[in-house]
Amino acid sequence: MCEDFEEWLATDSFRSTKHSSMEKLIVHGGAPLKGRINISGSKNSSLPILAATLLTNDTCTIRRVPDLSDTNYMVRILGELGAEVERASGVVVVKAEKIKSVAPYDLVRKMRASICVLGPLTGRLKECTVSLPGGCVIGDRPVDLHLKGLEALGAQILVEGGDIFVNAKKGFKGGPMNLMGKHGSTVLGTDNVMMAAVLAKGITTIEGAAAEPEVEDLANFLIKMGAKIEGAGTNRITIEGVKELHGAEHVVIPDRIEAGTFLVAGAMLGDGVTLKRVMPEHMKTVTDALIKCGFPVDITKDSITVKPNPNAKGFDLTTLCYPGFPTDMQAQMCALACVINDTSTITETIFPQRFMHCAEMKRMGANIDLQGATARIRGGSVMKGAPVMASDLRASAALVLAGLVAEGKTEINRLYHIDRGYEHLDDKLAALGAQLERVQDK
Ligand code: UD1
């Protein structure tokens, strides 16, 4: 482990990560939720956009970067790669004048999304070594499609000893490619290839590209930097390579998954939760699902209000790539299904093993039958608070939601999963009336 990295482990930005690994959240169920909250900037946009600042030696300013351990970690990675980085109140300023081409395991292992430095490092330096970030509880998470895309641009790639070695010393050359995988398109894979292709010679066409709003947000930032990209936000992206990129400023889009999580909370209990600073057009499948169940949902240009409905009907949903129902909202919908007095089914097609939350919810009294990648939830039985173990980011959020409606006290351990991706979740829920506290785990 390098010395700088050791130093960082002692800093405030790391402390929040480390700290929360020793904390748990106690949720006292039943307190009604009511009020308004502001949604933070998107985690999944911020991470690749921060990585994209490596593509220029000019200064880039990124606003509304949420204060999370994942974004702190990405800031740290940029610094370790040689960039000067300043961060204050959601604004991150990066100047990546001289950068290194090696991102070792110690640097990338804590966050799978650190793979998104692969595209910009290769794009700018024409060679790099990035360690494979490793496994993840929600599934295997291979990077074959990322590598397929870079190879289609002319890179030579060797994966050995846990490292990815990329060589494109003769320069990248644009061309056609298809990045569709067996579970659909790849978000970070599309991001990586797009970031490598912006500085390639000629035209790159990515078929089977991920159409997620976060990919479009990254493309919009790259376009501000001087890139020529068309079609981002669809399954076909065309990139005309340019010689160099320049500095730019960008405001990150609102986090549609954080927003969706609070919407589900508002549907589960209370007297109306209003989300401000949202982009309702990014959340249509989630709001449509709630409306179909019978929850009153009121949508304006930049706000969404939801209320519970004791007579809500069950739902059948299948996770799909955007604009389909997001896998990152699947666990939260499972918590919602537990309080609907009806049967619901959820089928997971993106990460078929992503059901770790079900076993924990069953410990709270949920009636869930898991058959392969489909969960059948018979809702309406009384949930009772219990000590539960958070397994991953969205599963943890779903356990918090279950705790909000359960009778008594729910203890959610391994809080660091939540702090990876929800900015001040406990403070925001408390502002809506939830009764919860963060305590040291003994
Ligand atoms: C991103 C999101 C994550 C979300 C996921 C799916 C970020 C930081 N994270 O993750 O929150 O759950 O999209 O919407 O944006 N796959 C392959 N080969 C590859 C890459 C992916 O087979 O090379 C498979 C995956 O195993 C999975 C599916 O494709 O089954 C989608 O994964 P992908 O979109 O790549 O997820 P991430 O970009 O890592």
Identify the CATH class of the largest domain. Alpha Beta
Associated small molecules: uridine-diphosphate-N-acetylglucosamine
Beta strands, count: 24
CA-atom Rg in angstroms: 21 Å
The CATH architecture of the largest domain can be given as Alpha-beta prism
Shape annotation: globular
As a percent range, the share of helical residues equals 25-40%
**Total count of domains:** 2
CATH fold description of the largest domain: UDP-n-acetylglucosamine1-carboxyvinyl-transferase, Chain
Question: Could you give me the name of the CATH homologous superfamily of the largest domain?
Answer: Enolpyruvate transferase domain
Distance between the termini: 28 Å
Overall average residue pLDDT: 93
Question: What is the quaternary state of this protein?
Answer: single chain
Low-confidence stretches: 1-6, 12-19
Determine the number of helices (DSSP H or I, runs of at least 4 residues).
Answer: 16
Q: What can be said about the biggest beta sheet?
A: 4 strands, mixed
Which structural class should the secondary elements be placed in?
alpha/beta
Please list the strands of the largest sheet in the order they lie side by side: 22-23-1-24
Strand content: 15-25%
